[in-house]
Amino acid sequence: MTSQIAKKSNPLPPGVYCPVISLYKATPRQEVDLEASYKYFTYLVRGGLTGLVLAGTTAEAVLLSAEERVDLTKVARNAVTDLGLPDYPLVAGISGQSTNESIRFADAAAAAGANFGLLLPPSYWSKAVTKEVILGFYREVADASPIPVVVYNYPGVTNGIDLDSDVLAELAQHPNIVGVKLTCGNIGKMTRLTADFHPQQFAVLGGASDYLIPSLIGGGSGCITGVANIYPKSVSKLYALYQEGKVAEAVKLQGLVAHGEKACKLGIATTKYGSAYFAGPLAGVNDKKAFWPRKPYAPINQTMQSWVVNSMGILEMTESGLPDRQIP
């Protein structure tokens, strides 16, 4: 039952995206460290990723001001331009609790250099969020947004609101809604959507890379994965192996990636510690406090730190053996 809708004029490129963590200065107010962020963006892009996601869940978006979101997007655009990749895909979080706020976030993201906007459903008064509210919200934001919208389904941060495949299929009809990130991890939902839509009509991406190969087999377009903050080359290689038809190699690497990503499932603090330990020195960001969560949230304790290092370390040798992206 393939959809007959037109291909989107600006489809979301398939591949692996990193929802970039936010880095802060080691001060009482923890101001965003734009210099460190520039270095980190550069490190990630050199790792071969398809695109970066800014001001998303992993970036602690709810703890960032509107101005900080804009500043991070501008710095990311400067970083990729300086690398000679001025058209590199940047996806910016535009999630607000009202239609008005989300449109304002979309306008600001576009002006700062974002190519796409990532949008959660409203959720503060979850019992009032009906199907009609969801459809109206996304359609109105997409109508007004100067950049294409990617739907973001993550029940864990939206009071349990979980967009089903029927709702997503309705949203896919909109000319300015180009895809969905499924952090719900529902493979059945993914395959129902990929059975109906070509990626250029409506891209379907997983919200993690520990099931990237199963999702690609099911017709998915890729993933947006937190472990790419630590191992961008490994996850990019995993995607490339499958695209090259090297399925046996991809399956082997998928197991390592799944083990390496396990710590990210426990939250932002574990992801940020792994980033500080494994990736920070490679990116030139050596102050581990830059990777602490924003207060009132706390960094992990020493026992958990040791567990994260042991858990994520399974991919360290693989990552170090892979080359950087070839940049013209």
Main sheet makeup:
8 strands, parallel, barrel
- Reading side by side through the largest sheet, how are the strands ordered? 1-2-3-4-5-6-7-8
Low-confidence runs of at least 5 consecutive residues? none
The assigned structural class equals alpha/beta
Return the string of H and E elements. EHEHEHEHEHEHEHEHHHHH
Separate helix tally:
12
- Report how far apart the termini are: 42 Å
Describe this protein's structure:
It contains twelve helices and eight strands. It is of the alpha/beta class and 328 residues long. 43% of the residues lie in helices and 11% in strands. Helix 1 (34-46) crosses helix 2, helix 2 (66-82) packs parallel to helix 3 (99-112) and helix 8 packs antiparallel against helix 9 (247-261). The longest helix has 17 residues, at 66-82. It has an eight-stranded parallel barrel with strand order 1-2-3-4-5-6-7-8, surrounded by six helices. The protein has helices spanning 34-46, 66-82, 99-112, 131-144, 165-171, 187-196, 212-217, 232-243, 247-261, 268-283, 302-312, 316-320; strands at 15-19, 51-54, 90-93, 116-119, 149-153, 177-182, 203-206, 222-224.
Q: What layout of secondary structure does this protein have?
A:
Elements (H helix, E strand, L loop, with lengths): L14 E5 L14 H13 L4 E4 L11 H17 L7 E4 L5 H14 L3 E4 L11 H14 L4 E5 L11 H7 L5 E6 L4 H10 L6 E4 L5 H6 L4 E3 L7 H12 L3 H15 L6 H16 L18 H11 L3 H5 L8
Parallel strand pairs: 1-2, 1-8, 2-3, 3-4, 4-5, 5-6, 6-7, 7-8
Helix pairs in contact: 1-2, 2-3, 3-4, 8-9, 10-11
Descriptive labels:
328 residues; 12 helices; alpha/beta
